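Section 3.1: Structural characterization of target chains.
Under the original work plan, the team committed to producing a structural model for every single-chain target entering the pipeline before any wet-lab resources were allocated. The record below documents one such target. The sequence was received from the expression subgroup and is listed exactly as submitted; it comprises 243 residues.
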Amino acid sequence: MTEKQQKTENRKQKTESPNPLRICVPVVETTVNRARGLYLRAARRGLWTEMRLDYLEKPDLPRLFRTRPGPVIATNRRREEGGQWAGAEAERLALLEECLTYGVDFLDVELAVDAAWRRELPGRRGAAGIILSWHDFDGTPESGRLEAVLEEMVAAEAQVVKMVTLARKPEDNLRVLSLIPKAKAQGREIIAFCMGPLGMWSRVAAPLLGSFLTFAPFSKRGASAPGQITINKLHRLWRLLTK
């Protein structure tokens, strides 16, 4: 088996893990050393890592990814998408593409990104997977709008789709969580839950319905989005739900 085939097989095994609670730790550190330290800590606990390049003051990828002890997602969010990236868009996308040379498991790219670039990406990704993401930071649209976005994303060439909205009322969570079985019925992995205080419980419930990942930091300081609960609290709630 070639190295490329082995990487593909490793990623396949990760995406087909029988464990329904697959936790990804968002890393929002400003220095490579601290970001690398959290990556190693997450890997030791068998957790995924989302490396938020937009938070790094100097994103030194050779140091950041000099070894890959555990599964890692490279994300580089611009401010309009809830991130910290304030530079040129071409530089943002080039940094994401550079991550492919270091063997990251997934790139997270936004549905709103340049369509031509996104269409060309599958031919460049090698063994890496693509997470196609869409966020609504203002609220949760009605079901018709959510399903239309889901159909657009499923039609794109991505291994995982990610749909996250802000919950303004409890029932918003139900509309977003209902997207999980709809995506999986079409053979597509999905990450779906709600942000904000009213969306907290959806982050715990999502894996029960088959969400590919849920996100949780080691501490409140490490949260990358409103409503994220810590890993320890997530585990406690999960145990209560699955007894």
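The chain has one domain: 19-219.
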